[in-house]
Amino acid sequence: MLDFIVQNAASIILKLTTMEDSFLDELKNVNLSLPGKHRCELHSPDKAYGIAIKYCYEDADNKLWAGNDEYESQVNYCPVCGYNAKIIAKK
Ligand SMILES: [Zn+2]
Ligand SMILES: [Zn+2]
Q1: Distance 32 CA to ligand 2 centre (A)
Q2: Do residue 25 and residue 42 come from a single domain?
Q3: Structural domain boundaries, residue 8
Q4: How far is CA 36 from the centre of its chain?
Q5: Which of 26, 64, 82, 84 has the greatest number of C-beta atoms within 10 Å?
Q6: Which residues surround ligand 2, an ion (CB under 5 A)?
Q7: Phi, psi (5° rounding) for residue 73?
Q8: Backbone torsions φ then ψ of 75, nearest 5 degrees
């Protein structure tokens, strides 16, 4: 068993990493799809440094967030459809 683990260490680590990524994606999707909460997706072309906003959603505290898969910013209205945030972000 130990031999098997040592010989296959690289692929086992790869497998675990992949599992972790898909698990995180799953968690994120659950977060982004709260029932009764606002959510929009923006299908923007790629320009300059990349796509800043891919989605916008309302969290459990009614704050509105716009972002991509890496960064999110609290916003006062939806950049996709103009929906107004129930909780206003500080200036
Ligand atoms: Zn939105
Ligand atoms: Zn919207």
Answers
A1: 13
A2: no
A3: 1-32
A4: 18
A5: 64
A6: 40, 78, 80-81, 83
A7: -125, 140
A8: -130, 160
Q: What are the pLDDT digits (tens) for 44-89? A: 999 999 999 999 999 999 999 999 989 999 999 999 999 999 999 9
Q: Compute, in angstroms, the gap from residue 66 CA to the centroid of ligand 2.
A: 10
Clarify whether residues 46 and 60 are in a common domain. yes
Q: Do 73 and 88 lie in a common domain? A: yes
Most confident of 5-9, 31-35, 87-91: 87-91
**Total-model pTM:** 0.65
Q: How far is CA 2 from CA 10, 14, 16, 73, in A?
A: 14, 18, 17, 47
Q: Is the pLDDT of residue 30 over 50?
A: no
Residues 44 and 64 in one domain: yes
Question: How many folded domains does the chain comprise?
Answer: 2
Ligand nearest to the CA of 64: 1
